[in-house]
Amino acid sequence: MQIGFFDSGIGGITVLHDALKMLPHEDYIYYADTLNVPYGPKPKDEVKKHIFNAIEFIIEQRVKAIVIACNTATSVAIEDLRSKYSIPIIGMEPAVKPAVEKNNDVNKRVLVTATALTLKEEKLQNLITKLDNEHIVDLLPLPGLVQFSESFEFNEQIVLPYLQEQLFKYDLNKYETVVLGCTHFSFYKDMFRKLLPSHTNIIDGNIGTVKNLKRILEETNSLNEGNGNIIFYNSGYKVEDKAKLDKYSKLFKRLDDIDV
């Protein structure tokens, strides 16, 4: 059986990329809700409806586990999804915990970037309240990066000025860690690296999510001997157009090439 990956768009490919490294002998379905991306600016109830429609479709494809490779979808729907479905559903959240716990300097801060909806959701707010005893966490929505990635825009001359503008009001030397709290943002790690001081760590929740997936598959004796095949769906429609499939291949190549 396959593993289902779900995201509002292409951001979850950054998580799938790590899954292919850690679990190369699994087969995958990747569902991008391209008709409704981005989720970040939309009302919570509308987003939840889109998520449930997508997950219902993925389950119909006979998967053994689902990774919600989207911080926004996890924050608004993970508990309801787990209540409704019996198969393992693995979510993800901005890597606030490792960022705060590994902060080595009381004078250094942590900057959490994500979509506006993720940042204002109770799930993340509760996590920050629990962990951030020293009040070192700052929050920054970066909706433009979702729009850029969904347009397959990775030109530094276009994206870097946007990032510079958004980061301008922060004294970046004060930050020990920047958390990429949206899977789309990981496509731009190399550009963050160019703008941030060399001492600043850049982290996301991708590897942790895939490790959790692997652990669950091992516990349920569900590891496969597949071929690393991927079937792509865009809002319920199988992607068979060669040009679109080539675009997805280039995303994996970009992730291979990024070095931060």
UniProtKB/TrEMBL annotation:
Pathway named in the protein's UniProt entry: Cell wall biogenesis; peptidoglycan biosynthesis
Keywords: Cell shape, Cell wall biogenesis/degradation, Isomerase, Peptidoglycan synthesis
Annotated substrate binding sites: D7, S8, Y39, G40, N71, T72, T183, H184
MF terms (GO), sorted A to Z: glutamate racemase activity
Gene Ontology biological-process entries: cell wall organization; peptidoglycan biosynthetic process; regulation of cell shape
Enzyme class: isomerase
Source organism superkingdom: Bacteria
Pfam families in alphabetical order: Asp_Glu_race (PF01177)
Active site feature: C70, C182
Catalytic activity: L-glutamate = D-glutamate
EC code: 5.1.1.3
Annotated PANTHER family: GLUTAMATE RACEMASE
Known role: Provides the (R)-glutamate required for cell wall biosynthesis.
Family named by the database record: Belongs to the aspartate/glutamate racemases family.
Entry-linked HAMAP family: Glu_racemase (MF_00258)
Listed name of the protein: Glutamate racemase
Organism, as annotated: Clostridium aciditolerans
Gene name of the record: murI
